[in-house]
TrEMBL record:
Sequence ranges assigned to domain CheC-like protein in this UniProt record: 298-334
Highest taxon of the lineage: Archaea
Single GO MF descriptor: hydrolase activity
UniProt-recorded name of the protein: Chemotaxis protein CheX
Organism ancestry: Archaea, Methanobacteriati, Methanobacteriota, Stenosarchaea group, Halobacteria
Amino acid sequence: MNLDVRSLRTFSRLAHSGAEKAAGSLTTLAGIDTYVNVTKVELGTKADVENEFAERDLVSVNIGFSGGLDGRTILAFSPESAERLVDALVPGMDPTSGDGELAASSLKEVANIMLGGFIDGWADYLDTSIDITTPTYVDEDSGGPLEEVETDGFEHQDDERILVFRNQLEAADDAIGFDLYMVPTSQSIGTIVEASGDDGALPVESFAAFSEMICDGANQASDDITAMTGIDTAVEVSRLSFVPIEGVPMSLTDGVRRGVVLEFTGTPSGYIAILFDEPSAENIASSLLPGMEADEAMRQSAIQEIGNIVTSGFLDGWANALETTIEISPPRHVHDIGSAIVDPLATDLAQSQEYAFLIDSTIRTDDDEFTCDIYALPDENELRKALEQLSPAA
């Protein structure tokens, strides 16, 4: 099975269109004005998705689909958003009370209508019929929302990799936010790729190999942080997303972040941001400069130094795997909300491309002493060259 940028654009547009139908269904059903914030096509592992559900304590409703396409759709809410939605549907009912079964039933009704409309868009595009199962409420004691998702065709060195279409939706008043996931089988992805009709597609193994390269880079960066600070760290998540270029800033939270931004050149080229939340930045400075953390210039220098080390560790593995040289610019210190930091990077890439490959890795300590987020935005043309080098036929 092959994938390419044209296929991914088709996936993204279909997913966004379907999510808009789902948002419209919720508006009609509950009277809640809802919009699609950002649509991503993510290549990651089942474990990454399951861990995110567990960490965020998400409430979800699961619906399978089969026929012209096979797979799973999931509507996932934070507990707070689920409570507000249930209250909009059944005013005055407490979803944590004895009416919990009724609350789950209300969420299943919402999911059935929203996800049904979402799948209809794919059926129309493929000119086929797609049947959906009855909704299943997924609680915290279950095996997880992706327990039965097929990974055949995406496995690479024993990793269960999946392609996930993920839409982030929000109510206009920000009172309710939720994610809509679609996880098709590998065979179904092949069906969509064939419908997009691009002869220049690359084997999915190329994307899987690049995704693994990202994981290796994140692990090296984690080891470098541990060696530099003496604090044990681990990679929590590392994934490759395909997102409209204007959606890149919306992929970050609006929390204030400190860190560095660097440009890298070679194959591939692009930008990378190493960002810490403010408590993490303070802890990093204290680890590297004990007793001198009150000196702002020294603190900034420490953050730049660790940003430079993390970037080198993250990208050196790429250069080795691709047998190329990747040069990095001096680190530029940044201190702003996350979306404002990456917005100029996305704007620069937008001069030559409509979509971006966003690489997102998170490194953290067990006790949350600090968290380091790595965001890389490679140039699309240069990334394609890298993927061609990773192709099994290369």
